[in-house]
Amino acid sequence: MLELSEVSFSWPDGPAVLAHVSLKIAPGEKVVLLGANGCGKSTLLKLMNGLVFPERGTVRWNGEALTQAQLKQREFARRFRGECVLLFQHPEAMLFNPTVREEIAYTLKQLGRADVDTQIGHWAAELRIAHLLDKAPFALSGGEKQKVALAALLALDPALLLLDEPGASLDPATVGWLVDTLVHSERTVVASTHSLSLAAELGSRCIVLGQGGAVLFDGPVRMALTGMELLEKAGLAHRHSHRHGGAEHTHVHGHDW
Question: Which of 78, 88, 127, 166 has a Cα-to-Cα distance from 49 of 20 to 30 A?
Fold first, then answer.
């Protein structure tokens, strides 16, 4: 479904964010993107979603190059934007319509979907935001904004759902719903997090990024979460010194953030 080959990226006048990243996402996979803050998880998701483009290397969507030129092609862009969607960690960047109802409807209408009202009602009910449909998105809480943004994406019935720190603003009950509804479905999901406990729930495959944007690990999530040396290298665990009687011991601990 999605293939990155030797992808490198840096922001203007900044150090490398990602370096020589190669990976493939197959249909139906549930992938956890794990790493400390600043390791490039959000940038990698934006590359997958065609919001930024690599300095070197290639990104392919179903075998087709994902480039600025390709996304200027109307038919490809319409198809891709309906199939591959990204939920931002900070949903304010995604919301711009006067009401929640119009927010959910916006892309459906842009893509010419015929079931707009049905989708609005269904996903508003699923995410328990039906009472917010006629309210202005800017007046909502952070968690409510993220639910609105998520509803607008799910209404498109995308093939690939990219989630950037989905537990950051959502309440625990909604995160639980998200795991149950999406991770256990046939939909392809790539979700970034620095929460070790959430990573265990989000998927079966884990890609661990280190500082400087290198892939440190790509394999079973359980293996990643029990590899203390790996977690320490990725900045997700650190060493504590403890004194027991007259002796001092050093232990590596993993922590949720």
Answer: 127
Whether the Cβ atoms of residue 207 and residue 30 lie closer than 8 Å to each other? no
For the chain, where are the alpha helices, taking DSSP H only? Answer: 41-48, 68-71, 74-83, 100-110, 116-126, 142-154, 172-178, 196-202, 221-225, 228-233
Burial 174-190 (b: 16+ CB within 10 A, else e): bbebbbeebbeeebbbb
Do the bridges between strand 84-87 and strand 56-61 make them parallel or antiparallel, or are there none, so unpaired? Answer: unpaired
Rounded Cα gap, residues 147 and 143, in angstroms: 6
Q: State the number of CA atoms in the 13 A half-sphere of 111 facing the CB.
A: 23
Identify the bridge partners of residue 251 per DSSP, sorted by sequence position: 240
Find all residues with CB under 8 Å of 189, minimum gap 6, and list them.
29, 30, 31, 160, 161, 162, 163, 182, 183, 202, 203
Helices (H) and strands (E) in the chain, counts: 10, 12
CA 207 – CA 218 distance, rounded (Å): 4
* CA neighbor of 83 nearest in space, from 57, 118, 107, 104: 107
Q: Where are the domains of the chain?
A: 2-254
| pTM, 2 dp | 0.88
> Would you state the CATH architecture of domain 2-254?
3-Layer(aba) Sandwich (3.40)
Q: How far apart are CA 34 and CA 44, in angstroms?
A: 12
